[in-house]
UniProtKB/TrEMBL annotation, chain A:
It comes from the Bacteria. Pfam families: Thiolase_C_1. InterPro entries: Thiolase, Thiolase-like, Thiolase_C_2. SUPFAM superfamilies: Thiolase-like (SSF53901). This is Thiolase C-terminal domain-containing protein. Residues 250-360 form the Thiolase C-terminal domain. One of its GO terms (molecular function) is acyltransferase activity, transferring groups other than amino-acyl groups.
TrEMBL record, chain B:
It comes from Candidatus Segetimicrobium genomatis. It comes from the Bacteria. Residues 86-160 form the ChsH2 C-terminal OB-fold domain. SUPFAM superfamilies: Nucleic acid-binding proteins (SSF50249). Residues 50-77 form the ChsH2 rubredoxin-like zinc ribbon domain. Signal peptide: none annotated. This is Zn-ribbon domain-containing OB-fold protein. InterPro entries: ChsH2_C, ChsH2_Znr, NA-bd_OB-fold, Thioester_dehydratase-like. Pfam families: OB_ChsH2_C (PF01796), zf-ChsH2 (PF12172). The lineage of its organism: Bacteria, Bacillati, Candidatus Sysuimicrobiota, Candidatus Sysuimicrobiia, Candidatus Sysuimicrobiales.
Amino acid sequence: MSDRVAVVGAGEVPLRPLSPRQSYREMGFEAATRAYDDAGVTHQDIDSFVSVCEDFHEGTSITDEYTPDQLGAVLRPVHTVAGDGLQGVAAAVMLIRTGIADLVAVEAHCKTSNILAHEQVLTMALDPSYERLPGITPHFVAGMEMRRYLHETGAPEDAVAMVVVKNRRHALSNPVAAYGEVLSPDDVLASAAVCAPLREREISPPADGAVVLVLASEEAARRTPKPVWIRGVGWASDSPWLAARSWGQASYASLATQMAYQMAGIAKPDQEIRFAEVDDTYAYKELQHLEAAQLIPRADAARIVLEGGTRRGGRLPVNSSGGSLGMGYCFDATALYRTAAAVRQIRGEAGRAQVERAATTGTQRGLNQIEDCEL
Amino acid sequence: MDPRQAPPYVPLRGHPLTDDEFREREASTAWAPRLEYAWDAGIAISRFLEGLGQGAIYGVRCRRCGRTVTPPRAFCELDFKPMDEWVKLPETGTINTFSICYVTWDMKPLRVPQIPAVIEIDGTSPRVGFLHLVGGVRGRTVDQIRRQVRVGMPVRAVWKPPAKREGAITDILYFAPVRKRA
Ligand SMILES: [Zn+2]
């Protein structure tokens, strides 16, 4: 029996700042319908379902109770992962590789517009006894991390601004992105200080959406029209002791990518990876994550970004989907939107967002980086 | 075989807990979350709530399995197909199950109990009722109420006055037992 796993279907609804017409269930149904159609399967063909959601984001507790209907999973095996969307993908990979399931659907959705005080939810991520500093936006954690990153690497703030410019522009070519626009670095640098050095436009804006992926064993994938093989997955979490983190470097991301590269047999990521979708919840994180993933030598990300090396036409296209800065940040659904974008790249179906050489016969290598544990 | 007689129901004892009784004297950290949500009800539930505001209970019928359900949904969760054949349902139904509750959600004793129930609205398919309250029942004790409320009993919606309705499930105050159907 083969232990290869493929993404065989992807479906999503367009990300939007508001989505008053549809409930999250209705959005999820639309995404699942598209994903199953894309894979050429029905809901009855799926053996197991994984939904990625968190109670505080939903405003209901025991949120896993609310996930089966919109996936066609009533009275079927379903479980919830309260973490990153990619941890849901990893769970599906394990279900398939252990032989428990041949077809697994992974779902995540986000109704950020329904949370009236999201910063309260973010604040509650901090330890209640010694980290919830009164009255400060929790983005301060990102402000401190960005300060240390700039300090250690000497990266200029222009490079951080350029990440925003690039991703917002990339988003213009992605029909599911919510925040495509043409900006100059000066527009970004002129935006207000939120937690300096972090500026307003360097924080990805929230968006509502729902996304479903279908994963398959090799045997099941062979019966579907467009399998994209997952060669490696990895994940790692930092410690909850905020003050003891390696603020300048994304240690968790380096460990997660090493785990994925090892599984995939990738020895030289900077030469073997053709394009990357990496977390850019905050603009500086894209630089930090590219270095952690060994796609760019340490402290070199700023220069390469400023030279245009990570644009869609550059040597290493990064976040050609628009990233979170351009698509919108949708909590745990973010990584699944990006995985769906990577799948379309590898299939050569990305339209105006298509990266050259992403879709070639033979080895197909995209990177969708798992990162965890950051605000 | 003789059914064993269960001992009679006795009322709960005790009194509402004070703040002091809640808090222990050891060092602790308190945090009052300010979590606020405004949920988009969506296509199906929006229309249901609008209907309640007008004194009507709406349902939808699945063209595939033929089930009629309320509260309505945009898709049949069993067939995974859109559900868009709307039907206006009667305001009568049947009690599937119920409980007689003597404690509030924040642990205060209730002398007059609340009676949450699953109501299967007439015209819907079996086992697709919704959760509501049974009211219009005299008495306080389990025995008094059980003489008036039974599984399988017909009930009818008692509505808020039209001017006070707001398009919410609480526009129906409760379902009251009926002796015979209209
Ligand atoms: Zn049906």
